[in-house]
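From the shared-data thread, chain only:
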Amino acid sequence: MIELSEKQQEIVDYIDGPLLVTAGPGSGKTRVLTEKIVSILNKRKGRVLALTFSNKAAEEINERIEDHVEDISRVKISTIHSFCLEILKDNSHTIGLPSNMSIIESSNDQKIILLEALTNIGVKLSDSKELANILGKISDYKSKFKTPQSLVNEEDTEFISIYDSYNKLMNQNRLLDFDDILFYSYKILSENNKVSKNISRLYKYFLVDEAQDLNDTQYKIIKKMLANGHNNIMFVGDEAQSIYGFNGSNSLIMTKFFVEDFSPKIFKLTENYRSAKRIIEAAQRLKPTSESTSKYPIEGVFEVKSFQDEKDEGDWIVEMIEDLINQDKEYPSEIAVIGRNRYLFENVKTYLNDKDIDYNEGMSGLKLECETEEMRLFNLGIKIISNPYDEFHYAEINELLNRKGDPFYNRYDEEIINNPVNNNPNISSQFFSLIIYAWKEIFKDDKKYGRVLDNLYNSILTLEFEENLKYLIINDIEFLKKQWTKYCAETSIDNRSLNMFKNFIALGKSKETSLEGVSLITVHGSKGLEFNNVFIIGVTKGTFPDYRAKTEEQLTEEKNNMFVAITRAKRRCYITYPLEKMMPWGSSKKQLPSQFITLLTQ
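Structure, as tokens:
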């Protein structure tokens, strides 16, 4: 392994006291973070908490630490949402919340609950855009820790009623949205000094990765966790890579507020060990404040190319990819096509298919739900067994089976395992009986979930089913088994529960990003990745930067997006754009090169 640089080693050795590390692209940030955790574990007795912004980053850091430390029980690596969910799980009773609350998995579920909340207060509203706006406003108030009761001076009394009705429904059904996780954990930390004291006692060292992506809510929670203890906290990040402003992130939290609040020792990592010289020079033309210096031993390639239209652009990119694979013997996994938006990849996908070149679409290419009605029904039942007060998914079951629920039961889990009525002719009664039996087994002992899936798998093989349907059901069962296997690998058997398993899925922990073949990924999806060869596609005005970016802050973030895209490249980076674009209504429209092109080619 390459030795740490003098500055990297100094950061690793600086253990006690607050620390801010500004780490440019390719500067070895993850390695420094990992080595620092290892150093703390070897030299100090306290436990370490490292907070990240993605499950992927948490897994990567954890894997690296396992290679260097025999006992990793003294370190916890978690996303902020996952850690806050643990605070909520252990302390919800202290703020009057029920235990075992479930996280809503989709925005569509939120809209269904909001529609019910509107009905309850006599407001008629069904326009999808208006519903999204209301949910956005609720999210904004929760991020500022404002309850409906605290908005008594607001003029919009109808919204306050909607917000209140929505919250009451969520609590009645023991449901959480993602904003609730932070909202309630902050409430617990604020109202129960003992909780923050316990966290400070348990963890003597705090590390926050990608600190430029913190928002005000998250920073307040971190400060609350440290309020009663030490200042052994390290922030590491790069303000030039701040690209989550739409989620409220603010790089000033790292560069200004953290400095004012904690007076940390400051280090800068500017040596880029990833990208070739020409790629770094291009990134610096875009962001002159970037202080990266190249440590890569080759000049590299950086080119900007225009094409008559999107088809010519896609055709050229795929021809170049084919040459890289066949002539330069590059692995497809070392090639990425990066776009500001996912729709830009359509022509590239067509030509890759024509050439029989494998590709992936990162996280978005993964299946997220069961494809068959049979296994969707099974999965809805699992949601009810994990949260028997969830009226909304219970209603989905009855709708899917074309039946009415039985009002005799107070708990919906008891109702579904005792109701054999199935009025859906597309779901076989024989298989529905198997599903009810499976639900009953899991109801008795939710740790049998994996075994029940195995039994379902074996049973479906013996049934007389249409072959294609049987194939799809088996795929769904294997998909669910894979989720359960990953959950079991990360939790001890004593701590497993069906409710926490569903929350594990809702937090995205069961997802796996495939990078086999050529990667077709958005800028946000490319964060933290690196490739020998990068094509940045569709760089025209209105596309990159996005047409919605109007303010100086928004345009700065778009520039940060381009900076991130360029610095994913190690050896070659090509920026492309069409002179004409075919519009959805059938006519073509002239395109102007992005203003970033001017900066990059001057």
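The mean pLDDT is 90.
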